[in-house]
Design brief:
The chain is α/β, with parallel strands linked by helices and about 260 residues long. It is built from nine helices and ten strands. The chain has one domain: Aldolase class I (TIM Barrel), CATH 3.20.20.70.
């Protein structure tokens, strides 16, 4: 098994032996929404805040994010709650405008093969969270990461978020084999996104626990204070109460795994 390198997101280490939870809404909808969710996930021991500013959606009619309207919201919430922030960059032209706002760039599943975007991110000194393409082989995913690491930015964290298979009962098929494979064959940290991996709220907690047991360095979970009214992916978002319960179970499990 390869020794996992440590990626620092401000003062938070991913790959350093501590299990790191990244949590927040799929999309930033308002200042009050992000403020409430940030406070809840921080109190539940999440270390990094997530929130969509630009959203790549299958339908052009779906909510695409607040875009520039979210910038001041994020600045104020980051300052208030003192949490590192990760958000998806969907276009190379967004990198410079997001640079001062985010502490980690997220590359979504659809953009894993966007090598122009990956090569551009290699020129910046910010960590990159690289989600697996929904049909990507391990080799393709690792080589996509190499577009960043080989060009000068070694700060890459992989994110398993499920793949498309013949199974239709869940949104995707969460491939926890990837955690063991990446740990065995690379030095890259890997986290798991059980929200997109299942697309089913009640499956997120058991798959998050399974991710920890498989050796993942952390999870990324969608949390919303009112999932039924969320503007994107509410069906897979945990309520703050559910997230708090998950984090208590994660803490018990990770302590047991270290003993």
């Amino acid at each position: 098994m390869s020794k996992t390198q440590v990626v620092k997101v401000k003062d938070i280490e991913i790959g350093g032996g501590q299990f790191v939870a990244i949590a927040g809404p799929c999309s930033i909808e308002s200042q009050s929404q992000l403020d409430l969710i940030s406070e809840c996930v921080k109190n539940s021991q999440a270390k990094i805040l997530r929130g969509g500013i630009y959203k790549m959606r299958t339908s052009p009619d779906a909510f695409q994010g607040l875009e520039h309207e979210a910038f001041n919201i994020v600045k104020e919430i980051k300052e208030k709650h003192n949490m590192p922030f990760v958000s998806e960059v969907t276009d190379p032209r967004q990198i410079e405008e997001l640079y001062e706002l985010v502490d980690m760039f997220q590359v979504g599943s659809r953009n894993m093969y966007n090598y122009s975007l990956l090569k551009e991110l290699a020129n910046f000194d910010k960590p990159v969270l690289l989600k697996r393409g929904f049909s990507a082989l391990y080799d393709e995913w690792i080589k996509a990461a190499s577009y960043v690491t080989s060009q000068g930015n070694a700060q890459v964290v992989l994110c398993e978020r499920g793949i498309r298979t013949f199974e239709s009962a869940t949104r995707n098929t969460l491939d926890l084999n990837s955690v063991a494979y990446i740990k065995e064959n690379t030095d890259l940290p890997i986290i798991v996104d059980p929200s997109h991996g299942t697309g089913v709220r009640n499956l997120v907690t058991p798959m998050a626990l399974a991710s920890a047991a498989a050796g993942a360095d952390g999870i990324m979970v969608e949390v919303h204070n009112n999932p039924e009214k969320a503007q994107s992916d509410g069906f897979q978002a945990l309520t703050p109460e559910m997230f708090d319960h998950l984090m208590k179970r994660i803490n018990t499990l990770t302590q047991a795994l270290r003993s």
